[in-house]
Amino acid sequence: MDDRDLVLRAQRGDGEAYGRLVELHQPRIYATLAKITHDRDLALDLTQEAFIRAWEELDGFQRRSAFSTWLYRIAVRLAYDALRRERQRGESGSADRLADPAPRPDDRAAAGDETALLRQRIRMLPEMQRAVVTLRTWNDLSYREIAEILGTTEGSARVSFHHAITRLRAWYESANTR
């Protein structure tokens, strides 16, 4: 059974069908949120919240886009809201790490290899760029889907991705010239 059938059944109150949607989409939603927030516990809470919110708003899902796109939109917005709240409270954690683009010496030593360093640098990107890179690179979504999820235009998603890649490339080149 595909997402459309499961969504239709869930919209009619079939909890088992919605449970199957959760099983199908939970791993990718969690992975996306973990990459955006860089906080596994927060990502787990947000994943659960995203599915609760989706269940509560399922009657309003018009099926103009894929269920997964709609679900990503809910999840990414929850992540943005959570990161903003952290920043406003001035808590240490992912929001503080994102504010300083220069890696700390202990972070660089802990990174160890280029993949870890790249992940660290992605965490330092502004929210929109980080979300676009995550959705494009790890989730292999099109710019159209990314724009729909983030509530922006396809052109803006492309520009954000370009700026992110340019910034990552500059960081990489400066790290390799030292």
Description:
It is a single chain. The chain is an all-alpha fold and 178 residues long. It folds into 2 domains: 91 residues, Rna Polymerase Sigma Factor, Chain: A; 78 residues, Orthogonal Bundle (Arc Repressor Mutant, subunit A), CATH 1.10.10. The protein contains 10 helices and no strands. Helix 1 crosses helix 2 and helix 3 crosses helix 4. The protein is elongated, with a radius of gyration of 18 Å. The N and C termini lie far apart (54 Å).
Helical percent range? over 70%
Beta content comes to under 5%
Structural class: mainly alpha
* SSE pattern: HHHHHHHHHH
The CATH class designation of the largest domain is: Mainly Alpha
Round the Cα radius of gyration to an integer and report it: 18 Å
Q: Tell me the number of strands.
A: 0
CATH topology of the largest domain: Rna Polymerase Sigma Factor, Chain: A
Low-confidence stretches: 91-102
Mean pLDDT value: 84
Main β sheet profile? none
Rough shape?
A: elongated
Label the CATH architecture of the largest domain.
Orthogonal Bundle
Total helices: the number is 10
Distance between the amino and carboxyl termini: 54 Å
Number of domains: 2
**CATH evolutionary superfamily of the largest domain:** RNA polymerase sigma factor, region 2, helix turn helix motif
